[in-house]
Amino acid sequence: MPSEKITNMTTISINLEGSRAYDILIGRDNLDTIGTKLKALNIGESIFIITDSKVAGLYAKRLVGIFRKSGFRDIGLAKFPGGEKSKNIKTYTGVLTGLAKFDGGLNKRILVVNLGGGVPGDVGGFVAATFNRGVNYVQIPTTLLANVDSGIGGKVGIDFHNIKNKVGSFYQPKLVFVDLSLLKTLNLKEIRAGLAEVVKYGVIADPSLLEYVEGHVKDILALNLDVIKPVVEKSYRLKAGIVEQDERDTKGIRMVLNYGHTIGHAVESAAGFKYSHGESVSIGMVCANDLACELGIFSRAEAERIEILLSKIGLPVKIAHGKLADIIRFLKYDKKSVDGGNRFVLPVKFGKTEIKSALSPALIKKVIKKRMV
Ligand SMILES: NC(=O)c1ccc[n+]([C@@H]2O[C@H](COP(=O)([O-])OP(=O)(O)OC[C@H]3O[C@@H](n4cnc5c(N)ncnc54)[C@H](O)[C@@H]3O)[C@@H](O)[C@H]2O)c1
User: Fold this and answer.
1) Which one of 43, 196, 241, 316 counts the least CB within 10 Å of its CB?
2) Quick one: 118 and 200 in the same domain?
3) Is residue 311 packed enough to be buried (19+ CB in 10 Å), middle (13-18) or exposed (0-12)?
4) What's this model's pTM, rounded to 2 decimal places?
């Protein structure tokens, strides 16, 4: 019988054109209901789970049991070592090989189920986008970062030659299914990393979210799910609203999500992925704020408020890994550059940003150098 918690699931709909629209279900202790939900959606019969080894060890057996109980008979699984270093072409081809074997050339009604954080989500989504020119997939995000950001929006892909997300596609899932209780096994470092993206949403779109995090850092880090649920819902709602307006990132609207990511991605690559994505975004945000302050479009007081919050969360605001020359080199490869010139999303005030291009290389270098230890 469904418990009270299960009936308390929140639904957020992403209203995209035609069959690309989908629901995000957010609940707690609700994983047991995913099998019946997928059956009802009728989006595939042969389930192929894509996950990393750690998440597989924690949740794969249970998930397979739930699917079997709901009547799915044909279930396969591919797993790979966790973390950003796996988000590459070798993992992608490995997973594809597993999926091709599972399919056996029969063109089964495959449903890919991505179980994990942003890495299995992005890799698995790209596998789903490209296998047989596209099969259905759903996301079961299991990190805070994936529960506030990467789980939705349909940007899928892999890093290539260490350049972040260089190869990929836009391919929307059919469902995003959140069971917040799966976060209970996350370590502190990963909770902190997820909060970096929440701070991003607060700065670019909703100062009240920033205030909420400021007031609840301790509870969030202690994984108080009652406190975390509104953070997940608000972040996903903000992202859903942005994705609906600019699904393929062509109108300059979705680009706002890149606040902190231009220098952040370069730091992530230059540091050889010693910083997690969330940690890199934290560094990228303080660098973007410094740029905005130098340009005189953002107040030092607001920049300091963000820096204090990031430090309180336990995220880095200085660069201790990677060389300046490498960061500058990776900046040149940023996907959002146009004709070799970087475009930065910079804050103007809380809730408002501007896109700035043609910044002087000397200024960019100065700002990054000041953050290096
Ligand atoms: N597609 C998008 O729109 C989008 C948006 C933001 C970030 N991203 C991408 O997301 C990635 C980062 O995501 P991430 O931080 O979730 O990384 P991740 O998937 O590597 O997960 C981080 C670590 O947490 C572990 N983990 C996952 N769930 C767990 C659980 N419930 N309990 C215990 N351990 C668990 C994993 O094994 C891994 O070691 C980056 O590659 C980034 O580029 C994509």
Assistant:
1) 241
2) no
3) middle
4) 0.96
- pLDDT, tens digit, for every residue of 66-105? 999 999 999 999 999 999 999 999 999 999 999 999 999 9
Q: What is the pLDDT of residues 183-232, one digit of tens each?
A: 999 999 999 999 999 999 999 999 999 999 999 999 999 999 999 999 99
Looking up tokens 């059956």, which residue turns up? 39
**Pair 177, 203 in one domain:** no
Quick one: which of 254, 365, 369 has its CA closest to 319?
369
What's the CATH number where 331 sits? Answer: 1.20.1090.10
Token digits of residue 196: 């970096």
What's the total number of domains in the chain?
2
CA of 294 from ligand 1 middle (Å) equals 33
Q: Is the pLDDT of residue 3 over 60?
A: no
Instruction: Compute the distance between CA of residue 314 and CA of residue 218 in angstroms, rounded to an integer.
Output: 11
Which residue, by CA, sits nearest to atom 41 of ligand 1? 119
Q: How far is the CA of 143 from the centre of ligand 1 (A)?
A: 6
- The helix or strand, by DSSP H or E, that contains position 75, with its residue range, turns out to be strand 74-80
Question: Given the structure tokens 């909770």, which residue do they identify?
Answer: 191
